[in-house]
């Protein structure tokens, strides 16, 4: 197969284009399914490994920590070293992490393997849109990105039910094992079909990479240590180290021609507000995603299939509500986002106030309310992010926004861990209440848009 030149309006010729799109779509599906399934499995993994719910959150926190550290450097490496090379390397790392996770005997081993998966997952999700630009002709690019977004929505919606079926048929280790053969096949298809990317002539500022990793890594590690009752002196030291790393990174970025951390974009009020809104909303979303599976098992054990069915109401409502956000004419982003976030907060509050022994229907409508609110907010905020910056800076703007989302999710995981550790039973309702407050805070930030 011969690829057409990258950056031309012709993209790849069929059938290579179809194979390349299949490889990217399945890779994104595997990565998104992993995140969608792990929330359902967290209570089961905690019981199987003999750890409390707060400690089990490290399964999610380690992944989020790795993604936050890797997202900005991987985006830059993809531009300089070539997108296909970086994409396939990250996919291989994700598959290797899944393999180790499937056989992990302890939580420490599982958390380390999840960290490796987070590094790989950051590359898969962070480079996908750039690779799609190389695959599709310009007149078909919108359709290609839309198809990929639809695949993501289906993966998120089906993840809880697939997780329940796999755990009912075997164990939680099956959630990781299924990614191994699929990932191996995708590596072969990707090596043959993905387009070779033109490399930029930009020099890599290698000093920015460790500074970025140290800044984000120490910050999120310190937050997680606080959440898990770490030693106060270590937490203070971590906070000081994070502050120093961020200061050094910002000083270096001011001198860089192509900065790794494009903080200058935050001077654009509409963009900065959209990023801040996404950060706060991501805190609420992740807390809700982590607390809900424990809520469903809090008062009485439920069948895994029933848990999966109830949890699926949230992502299905997201997929159902998302199209309406872009079809309401003349509604400014602050109104659409604010309305969606208020509905989202109401759903989280309804879950926090759900009665003991609540019926399946009673829980389903509360989950659907959360999903409908978030589904109405997300497209409107994403459109505001994309339209508020010059098109030449769209790539940097997307990386910074994705970083804000991942950091928000990591903070949400830490807050949930702290509240679960405080009280394994009442901490669930407290976490959902905090999530509702965070969603209302996001709505208030959204209202500050121009």
Automatic annotation (TrEMBL):
SUPFAM superfamilies: MFS general substrate transporter (SSF103473). InterPro entries: MFS, MFS_dom, MFS_trans_sf, Sugar_transporter_CS. GO terms for cellular component: plasma membrane. GO terms for molecular function: transmembrane transporter activity. Keywords: Cell membrane, Membrane, Transmembrane, Transmembrane helix, Transport. Coiled coil: none annotated. It is found in: Cell membrane. It is a multi-pass membrane protein. Residues 20-450 form the Major facilitator superfamily (MFS) profile domain. Pfam families: MFS_1. Its main location: membrane. It comes from the Bacteria. The chain crosses the membrane at residues 19-42, 54-74, 86-105, 111-132, 144-168, 174-194, 206-225, 231-251, 271-292, 304-323, 335-353, 428-448. This is Spectinomycin tetracycline efflux pump. The lineage of its organism: Bacteria, Pseudomonadati, Pseudomonadota, Alphaproteobacteria, Caulobacterales. The gene is stp.
């Amino acid at each position: 197969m011969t690829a057409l030149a990258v950056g031309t309006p012709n993209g790849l010729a069929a059938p290579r284009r179809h194979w390349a799109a299949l490889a990217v779509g399945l890779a994104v599906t595997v990565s998104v399914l992993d995140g969608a399934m792990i929330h359902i499995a967290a209570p089961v993994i905690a019981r199987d490994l003999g750890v409390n719910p707060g400690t089990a959150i490290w399964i999610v926190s380690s992944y989020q920590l790795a993604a936050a550290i890797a997202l900005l450097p991987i985006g830059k490496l993809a531009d300089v070293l070539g997108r296909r090379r970086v994409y396939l390397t990250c996919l291989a790392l994700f598959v290797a992490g899944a393999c180790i996770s499937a056989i992990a005997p302890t939580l420490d081993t599982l958390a380390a393997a999840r960290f490796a998966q987070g590094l790989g997952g950051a590359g898969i999700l962070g480079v996908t849109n750039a690779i799609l630009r190389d695959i599709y002709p310009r007149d078909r690019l919108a359709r290609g990105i839309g198809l990929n977004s639809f695949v993501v929505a289906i993966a998120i919606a089906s993840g809880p039910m697939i997780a329940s079926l796999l755990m009912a048929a075997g164990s939680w280790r099956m959630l990781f094992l299924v990614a191994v053969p699929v990932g191996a096949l995708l590596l072969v298809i990707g090596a043959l079909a993905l387009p070779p990317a033109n490399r930029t002539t930009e020099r890599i500022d290698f000093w920015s990479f460790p500074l970025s990793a140290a800044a984000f890594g120490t910050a999120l590690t310190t937050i997680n240590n606080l959440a898990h009752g770490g030693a106060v002196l270590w937490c203070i030291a971590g906070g000081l180290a994070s502050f120093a790393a961020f200061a050094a990174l910002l000083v270096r970025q001011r001198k860089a021609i192509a900065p790794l951390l494009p903080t200058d974009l935050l001077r654009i009020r509409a963009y900065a507000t959209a990023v801040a809104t996404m950060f706060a909303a991501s805190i609420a979303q992740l807390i809700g995603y982590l607390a809900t599976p424990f809520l469903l098992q809090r008062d009485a054990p439920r069948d895994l299939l029933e848990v999966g069915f109830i949890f699926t109401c949230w992502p299905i409502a997201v997929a159902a509500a998302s199209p309406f956000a872009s079809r309401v004419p003349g509604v400014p982003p602050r109104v659409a986002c604010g309305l969606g976030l208020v509905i989202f907060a109401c759903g989280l509050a309804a879950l926090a106030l759900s009665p003991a022994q609540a019926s399946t229907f009673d829980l389903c409508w509360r989950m659907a309310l959360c999903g409908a609110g978030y589904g109405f907010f997300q497209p409107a905020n994403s459109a505001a992010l994309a339209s508020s910056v010059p098109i030449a800076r769209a790539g940097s703007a997307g990386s910074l926004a994705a970083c804000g989302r991942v950091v928000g999710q990591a903070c949400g995981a830490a807050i949930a861990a702290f509240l679960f550790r405080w009280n394994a039973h009442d901490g669930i309702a407290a976490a959902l209440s905090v999530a509702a407050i965070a969603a209302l805070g996001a709505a208030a930030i959204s209202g500050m848009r121009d």
